[in-house]
Amino acid sequence: MSIKLQRIYEKSNDSGYRVLVDLVWPRGISKKDAELDDWAKEVTPTPELRKWFNHDPEKFADFKSAYKKELLNDDEKLKKLAELQKLQKQQTLILLYAAKDKEHNHALVLKEVLESKLPK
């Protein structure tokens, strides 16, 4: 199937397995309105990395590298990544995030990692 990215604040008619990939619950969204199938806190950037990045486009390349390293060197994160990869083979996986910047956010990096081969 495929992986789609979507801001949680945007309405979409896409059907699929909806996963929130933010550590913090997005402001102004009720759990009912979110219509989530999962909240994958395990695969979010560490608070330290997230705060350092602070959605600064100039830091995105370094953030991307550090975040990938976090994802691929943590057993809990790898386990959740493998689960999400398995799901996306059966249905469309919709990664939901709250960031305003659609070109410089962790969901983009997460999608890239999910579309690659994970270490065993």
Q: What this model shows, in words?
A:
This is Uroporphyrin-III C-methyltransferase. It holds the Pfam family DUF488-N3i. This protein has 120 residues and is of the alpha/beta class. The protein has one domain. It is built from five helices and four strands; from the N terminus they run E-E-H-E-H-H-H-E-H. The protein has a four-stranded parallel β-sheet with strand order 1-4-2-3. Helix 3 packs across helix 5. It is globular. It starts with a strand and ends in a 6-residue tail after the last helix. 24% of the residues are buried.
State the gist of this model.
With 120 residues, this protein is of the alpha/beta class. 41% of the residues lie in helices and 13% in strands.
Walk me through the topology.
Layout: E1 3-7, E2 17-20, H1 31-34, E3 38-39, H2 47-53, H3 60-72, H4 75-90, E4 93-97, H5 106-114
Parallel strand pairs: 1-4, 2-3, 2-4
| Number of separate structural domains | 1
Shape: globular
Distance between the termini: 22 Å
Number of strands: 4
Mean pLDDT: 94
Beta-strand portion reads 5-15%
The largest pleated sheet is described as: 4 strands, parallel
Report the uncertain regions: none
Structural class by secondary-structure content:
alpha/beta
The helix tally amounts to 5
SSE arrangement, N to C: EEHEHHHEH
Write down the Rg.
Answer: 14 Å
With strands numbered from the N-terminus, the spatial order across the biggest sheet is 1-4-2-3
- The helical percent reads 40-55%
Protein name: Uroporphyrin-III C-methyltransferase
Organism: Oceanobacillus oncorhynchi
Pfam families: DUF488-N3i
InterPro entries: YeaO-like
